User: Which sequence fits this backbone?
């Protein structure tokens, strides 16, 4: 039986690649997609989710969620993803419509209808998840697992204690920085999130040799992979590096096969009041075991990871020809 997952996202180039990865794996069954404001405003993330779902042939409900953080002004990243979120990817407009239900209700109702079966995967700011937890705290008991792409611990391994490094500020990763209050709610909810942060996702770089694997994938390569990765790689953040990391696909990879990613239990707290550290995921690998509240991803098994990604894209590409 395929693993069921609900993806809460803010497409975003790497979200687009993650959705393709999830849909291209027969071991996974995407049962719903929900959107949140993040990489670009909600109107664009939602339109992008609809367009991507239709382009990929995903028969999946799409629900619009929160357009603003819980307590702050929106923070977006058009310099990374372009003004509308998908860089140079140009897709036909979707003919399908939104569900008409708020993402929060979709999350709660979908998980409640199949307790213990749904992997909730958040690859954008955590606003929708925090609102869902406020409305239905039993969500923590009903999910099969909760995996988020967000945060960072600093790159020095479990001995690093509470250090961190980010991609939006010196100390904060984008998804957490965009709504740190929501992230604080999520990490304090009494479940055990799997934090797939920058220290892990920076190991998943789409280098030249990786991209050579995609050269015979027809429309998917021409219309999504190449224009998306080229735009992503030209951004100030990635253009001096050997290929941009495809952050969000790593969270999907954990659901697909946890052996692709090594994790370590830790205590994670989110800084919400620091003058220079807001959005920092303060990660203490040395905390007492009874205080651990997360599994933190530390090492990616890159070769099997890229094998799985390539296989998914190859499967998906055959449906687009």
Assistant:
């Amino acid at each position: 039986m395929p693993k069921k997952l609900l993806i809460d996202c803010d497409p975003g180039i790497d979200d687009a690649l993650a959705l393709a990865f999830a849909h291209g794996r027969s071991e996974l069954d995407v049962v719903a997609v929900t959107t949140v404001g993040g990489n670009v405003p909600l109107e664009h993330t939602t339109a992008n989710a609809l367009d991507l779902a239709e382009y990929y042939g995903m028969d999946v409900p799409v629900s619009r969620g929160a357009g603003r953080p819980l307590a702050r002004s929106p923070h977006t990243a058009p310099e990374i993803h372009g003004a509308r979120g998908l860089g140079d990817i140009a897709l036909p407009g979707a003919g399908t419509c939104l569900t008409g239900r708020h993402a929060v209700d979709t999350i709660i109702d979908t998980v409640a209808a199949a307790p213990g079966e749904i992997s909730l995967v958040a690859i954008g700011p955590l606003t929708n998840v925090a609102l869902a937890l406020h409305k239905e705290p039993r969500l923590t008991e009903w999910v099969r697992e909760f995996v988020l792409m967000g945060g960072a611990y600093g790159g020095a391994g479990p001995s690093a204690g509470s250090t961190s490094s980010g991609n939006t500020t010196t100390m904060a990763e984008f998804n957490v920085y965009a709504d740190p209050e929501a992230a604080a709610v999520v990490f304090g909810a009494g479940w055990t999130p799997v934090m797939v942060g920058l220290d892990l996702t920076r190991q998943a770089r789409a280098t030249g040799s990786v991209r050579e694997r995609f050269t015979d994938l027809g429309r998917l390569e021409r219309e999504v992979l190449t224009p998306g990765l080229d735009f992503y790689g030209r951004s100030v953040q990635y253009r001096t590096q050997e290929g941009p990391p495809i952050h969000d696909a790593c969270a999907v990879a954990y659901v697909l096969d946890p052996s692709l990613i090594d994790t370590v239990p830790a205590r994670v707290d989110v800084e919400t009041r620091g003058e220079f550290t807001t959005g920092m995921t303060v990660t203490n690998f040395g905390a007492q075991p009874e205080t651990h509240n997360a599994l933190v991803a530390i090492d990616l098994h890159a070769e099997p990871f890229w094998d799985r990604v390539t296989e998914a894209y190859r499967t998906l590409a055959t449906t687009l020809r």
Residues 3-320 form a domain with the Inosine-uridine Nucleoside N-ribohydrolase; Chain A fold (CATH 3.90.245.10). Residues 270 and 281 are 5 Å apart (CA to CA). The longest strand covers residues 261-270.
